[in-house]
């Protein structure tokens, strides 16, 4: 049995040319090698295969039965290997059929993916998009396994071992229903604290957030009467009740039925980032998707 690890790939390339030319001199010219070098290659090949492979003949060299059996499979194998190591072809979105998998909560869906969708469908109509709501502590592992292509997260929740690119910086505003009597103008801190507030708690059930921390630094507090896990439900609550909320400005940029005012307390904003793993960092298709998302926000 031939030990494949003993075979130098250059020897197989030489054999392929010899089986095509049936002549050491012509094979040497095609391979840009000296005739003695090709002869040395042939000697090594004969030793590996235990067969003379090419025999002297009246019009050059004649292949043995073993060489004839090798000809087709060898040529096909070298062709496949050449394709495997060739530079990756440019990505053509019009011909693509990828299924993209993106990890995003509802905020990322609304502010990043929805703006990207129209252009994505127009430029790459054969692709599909799967949006997954994944716990933050699973993002890095799923990206490493290739289970997701991208993740959309706030910078403070971004795993350190993933590539990241900033999408935008967000700020908070105070929102309530149109005609809310307390939002005709910017409320005072005292008025703000007396309003009924809602909060989005991704972990579920929390009644304290960064607004409460900012108030506490001034010795103040507010009334948080509702905790919800998603922004979509929160927007419906704001539009139909007298409950108010501190919400990211981009989220309600095109919302109807809401009144937006500047809050009386300075609440730090956050940076939204796009995350991906090193395994897909240089992939042309993945690079195209990242640039498309960047251009859409």
UniProtKB/TrEMBL annotation:
UniProt KW Lyase keyword: no
Domain HTH lysR-type, first and last residues per copy: 7-64
Gene3D superfamilies, per the entry: Periplasmic binding protein-like II (3.40.190.10), Winged helix-like DNA-binding domain superfamily/Winged helix DNA-binding domain (1.10.10.10)
Record's keyword terms, sorted: DNA-binding, Transcription, Transcription regulation
Electron transport in keyword set: no
Family: Belongs to the LysR transcriptional regulatory family.
The protein's name: DNA-binding transcriptional LysR family regulator
């Amino acid at each position: 049995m031939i030990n494949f690890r003993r075979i130098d790939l250059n020897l197989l390339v030489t054999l392929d040319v010899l089986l095509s030319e049936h002549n050491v001199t012509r094979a040497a010219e095609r391979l840009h090698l000296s005739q003695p070098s090709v002869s040395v290659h042939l000697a090594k090949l004969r030793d590996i295969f235990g067969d003379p492979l090419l025999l002297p003949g009246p019009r050059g060299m004649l292949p043995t039965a073993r060489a004839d059996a090798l000809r087709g499979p060898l040529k096909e194998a070298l062709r496949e290997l050449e394709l495997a190591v060739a530079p990756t072809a440019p990505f053509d979105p019009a011909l693509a059929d990828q299924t993209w998998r993106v990890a995003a909560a509802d905020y990322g869906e609304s502010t990043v993916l929805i703006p990207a969708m129209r252009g994505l469908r127009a430029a790459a109509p054969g692709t599909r998009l799967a949006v997954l709501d994944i716990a933050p502590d699973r993002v890095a592992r799923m990206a490493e396994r290739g289970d997701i292509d991208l993740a959309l997260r706030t910078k403070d929740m971004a795993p350190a071992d993933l590539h990241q690119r900033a999408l935008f910086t967000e700020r908070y505003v105070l929102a309530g229903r149109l005609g809310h009597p307390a939002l005709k103008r910017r409320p005072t801190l005292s008025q703000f604290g007396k309003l009924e507030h809602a909060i989005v708690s991704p972990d579920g059930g929390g009644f304290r957030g960064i607004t409460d921390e900012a108030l506490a630094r001034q010795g103040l507090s507010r009334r948080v009467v509702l905790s919800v896990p998603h922004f979509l439900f929160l927007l419906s609550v704001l539009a139909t009740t007298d409950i108010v909320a501190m919400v990211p400005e981009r989220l309600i940029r095109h919302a109807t039925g809401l009144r937006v005012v500047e809050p009386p307390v300075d609440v730090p904003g956050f940076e939204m980032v796009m995350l991906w793993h090193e395994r897909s960092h240089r992939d042309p298709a993945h690079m195209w998707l990242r640039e498309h998302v960047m251009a859409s926000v």
